[in-house]
Amino acid sequence: MFSGSIVALVTPMQADGSVDHSALDRLVDFHVSNGTNAIVAVGTTGESPTLSVEEHIGVVKRVVDRSAGRLPVIAGTGANSTREAIELTRLAKDVGVDACLSVVPYYNKPTQEGLYQHFKAIAQAVNVPIFLYNVPGRTVVDMKPETVQRLAEFPNIVGLKEACSLERNRELLNRVGGRLALFSGDDDLACEAVLAGFNGVVSVTANVAPRQVRAVMDAALAGKRDEARKLDMKLQQLHKSMFLESNPIPVKWAVSRLGLCGDTVRLPLVGLSRQHQAPILEAMQSAGIAFA
Q: Could you tell me what percent of the chain has a pLDDT over 70?
């Protein structure tokens, strides 16, 4: 069920900061029609830190309902409180998601044993497929491959989104390849990760270039190394432009240029700086994206 290009979907918002449910419907339809393999709803790119639990689950439910089985939906349900992560995971299961994505707890800096116990508690509390998510650049704590290997023993822990390095990817393939579905959390490294044996990417760039990211993943999964790298090279400038400021500021602004939603983000994030607008438009153009 899970492979290829999985979009880390933005959460569209009205000018007053409320969730724009009509735009959310448009985004889901956009990804269905453009070949995205699955959606992550309300992950980091979906501004999960600033949505209330009610809003969070409301967005997830809307995505599930609008998808209507046309593509799998994975809910972001991570938290730095184990109890909150369990609650979000239960609620997401109740609205019909296909899986949950649970990020390494942030700010409170658990040990490796703490990480193991955290994810063990979630896996044992809720019988739903769970993807672990390691992104030390945002959480500070790095979940080591040996901890992932221990967690792979739980039958409903089915995958990992890893945002670290190609060297880390190789170690994970050696330890849990074939046992867990492995996804790159770095758009710029995803092609090489999949050529090495990963199953796909959870992509920020796919918000604005879904067909192009899908094409790279299809070629890489088919082992067409030269074709995959050629296609990926056309996206590298866009990948980098999506992180000129903190995610999801650039990508939401880029999606707004497609006319699919507004560019509002919630405080403490603010809108894209004027100085970065032209480089993002140039990157979109170089990737062959038509925009208003």
A: 99
Nearest to 261 by CA among 3, 47, 86: 47
Average model confidence (pLDDT) across the chain: 97
Centre a 10 Å sphere on the Cβ of residue 70 and count the other Cβ atoms it contains.
13
Give the Cα separation of 52 and 84 in Å (integer).
12
Residue 202 marked as a ligand binder? yes
Report residue 182: phi and psi, to 5°: -110, 130
Entry field: residues in the chain: 292
Q: What are the pLDDT digits (tens) for 237-291?
A: 999 999 999 999 999 999 999 999 999 999 999 999 999 999 999 999 999 998 7
Write down the CATH superfamily of domain 4-224.
Aldolase class I (3.20.20.70)
Residues carrying an active site annotation = 133, 161
Residues 68, 57: Cα–Cα separation, whole Å: 16
Question: Is 158 annotated as a binding-site member?
Answer: no
Residue-range domain boundaries for the chain: 4-224
4 vs 220: CA distance, rounded Å: 9
